[in-house]
From TrEMBL:
Claim: Repeat is one of the keywords in the record: yes
Protein name per its UniProtKB record: WDR64 protein
InterPro entries: Beta-prop_IP5PC_F, WD-EF-hand_domain, WD40/YVTN_repeat-like_dom_sf, WD40_repeat_dom_sf, WD40_rpt
Organism: Prunella fulvescens (Brown accentor)
Gene name in the database record: Wdr64_1
SUPFAM superfamilies: WD40 repeat-like
Length: 173
């Protein structure tokens, strides 16, 4: 079992039940994270979701870390970030059966998002029914203009390439 805490410095800290700090995380995506205001996990604690004061939602994959937290190779990977609200996210949760994330903001809106892609489904109180099966339509809320960003893993291995310089200064020419 782990305890997770979200902080104003955008840092997420994972603690053991004994109170020992196990891991510190900072978002590395291009999204400005700002102070974190909401935190939740899926039922098996493999997915960690955080919401920020700027209205962003971040999705982290913790599965490999939970298998063996002592192994340094098993990292927690940031997978996705998107702007969910124009104002602060105050609560969020994941509904695993429907593969949906629900977010709430201080602006009074409650919105639905696809859990794996961050696609917007709609908001509570809208006239049309939610279509949870259609993730091909890229729509956004009226107050948000940024699409979700899938975070690619950082390249850790840089190969040294032998570069040949065929151009040589010829003083005679």
């Amino acid at each position: 079992p782990l305890l997770a805490s979200a902080h104003e410095s955008s840092c997420i800290r994972l603690w053991s039940i004994q109170g020992n700090l196990m891991k510190e995380l900072l978002p590395f995506s291009g999204c400005p994270s700002g102070p974190l205001t909401a935190l939740c996990t899926d039922i098996f604690c493999k997915i960690l979701l955080t919401g920020s004061k700027e209205g962003y939602v971040f999705r982290w994959n913790m599965a490999s870390f939970l298998k063996d937290s002592r192994n340094r190779k098993n990292e927690i990977k940031e997978q996705l970030c998107w702007r969910a609200h124009a104002a602060e996210v105050v609560n969020l949760f994941i509904e695993e059966e429907k593969n949906v994330i629900v977010t709430a903001s201080i602006d009074g809106s409650v919105r639905l998002w696809h859990a794996r892609t961050g696609y917007y489904f709609g908001y509570f109180g809208q006239a049309r029914k939610f279509d949870l099966g259609d993730t091909s339509r890229l729509i956004l809320p009226s107050d948000v203009s940024d699409f979700s960003a899938i975070i690619k893993e950082r390249s850790r291995h840089t190969e040294k390439k032998k570069v040949m310089y065929p151009l040589v200064l010829d003083r005679d020419k």
